[in-house]
Design brief:
The complex is a heterodimer of chains A (293) and B (136).
Chain A: H1 4-59, E1 75-81, H2 91-107, E2 115-121, H3 123-131, E3 136-140, H4 149-164, E4 170-180, E5 183-192, H5 201-207, E6 211-213, H6 216-292
Parallel strand pairs in A: 1-2, 1-4, 2-3
Antiparallel strand pairs in A: 4-5
Helix pairs in contact in A: 1-6, 2-3, 4-6
Chain B: E1 3-9, E2 12-19, E3 21-26, E4 29-33, E5 40-43, E6 46-53, E7 56-70, E8 73-83, H1 89-105, H2 109-135
Classes of the chains: A alpha/beta (293), B alpha+beta (136).
Chain lengths: 293, 136
Amino acid sequence: MASLKEIRGRIGSVRNIAQITRAMEMVAASRMKRAQDAIVAARPYSDQMRDVLSRVAAAVTEEISPLLARRPVRRIGIVVLTTDRGLVGALDANSVRAVLRFVAERAGRDGERVEVEAISVGRKGRESLRRAGIPVAAHFPGLGNRPTFSQVTPIARLVTEDFIEGRYDEIAIEYSAWINTLSQRATLRTILPIERPEMGEEQKRTNDEYLFEPSARAVLDQLLPRYVAVDIYRAALEHNASEQSAAMIAMRNATDNANELIDGLTLVYNKTRQANITREMIEIASGANALAG
Amino acid sequence: MPIQLEIVSPERRAFTDEVDMVVVPGIDGQLGILPHHTPLISALGIGELKIRKGGTEQVLLISGGFVEVRPDRVVVMADIAEHSDEIDEARAVEARKRAEQELQQAESGVDVARIRAALQTALMRERIATRRRSRG
């Protein structure tokens, strides 16, 4: 049996771990709050953009932007958002699993072979995708706990160029949608080609009144790439909220486990201590008995 | 009659209020907007956005994006929208120097355009910051 000193030492180190994981839980909790605020703050822009897109698409009668082009899908590029360091429970593993499921679903459809390549964001994604045999065409570092729009624009630029050049016929993004603090759902969404907005008759009429500077076509050419970037940015923000929630829960579990361990060790410590006292008393008693006898 | 002005960037809503007049940096020059303007959607360049309300003027740095004008409402969707008091002059100078350096090394056409835009944004930041300081 371990000595009292050893057990005391172990209790001490587990207590330190509990303190650290507790602190990390609090940090993740405050980051989660901030991440949710960021989602809300980004909403006016993307709403407004969708609004303008619907007006422009209607005004451009024969719009033939390459970003709207639907081609038979032979090759798919999928942007996969993960963390750099993990410590988020099963979040990253679930993302990779969703990608594998997607690949399995799409590969056999229509009797055509569909190739899927990944654009990984975050080190965990790259490692697991490679292990799973999904080719990683490009890699970006994780977006951290405060994703900015300028961080996602290079990703948007890359996939947009790849799509226009025909390297991929479809671009999708995989991220963890935030349901609530306890649950996040791995989600896959198509970002290119861009879905053409639907519109009613009334909207069509009002749209004829708009002037476009320099031209409707030019506005569309500038708007669509931004739309792609905003789509990715929104996914990144939501993913970040999921990541912080998952980190918070993972750290809370770690703290609970550590506390359980401390309870167990304390029990062993007390038992050992008691056993030592009992033994000493027996020794004293038997010593006294021997003398008296 | 005032105009409802809203300035949004991908990261946040930078401004929302009723104003008397707004001047936006259109892609082909300044665009002054008063109430009852014709409906318009224009691409934005890099420059100052000026807001006039009751004799006071506010300035924001705007870089890229669009403006949608309706008779009673103006919505600016900018890639970057910064209030003049949010601009850090030292950082702007640094960014300008970096862009100038990159411009000398850059080769491909796309990169050059991007760096030029960054350079122009940095220059505009500097200008707004300097003016704010001289006014005190």
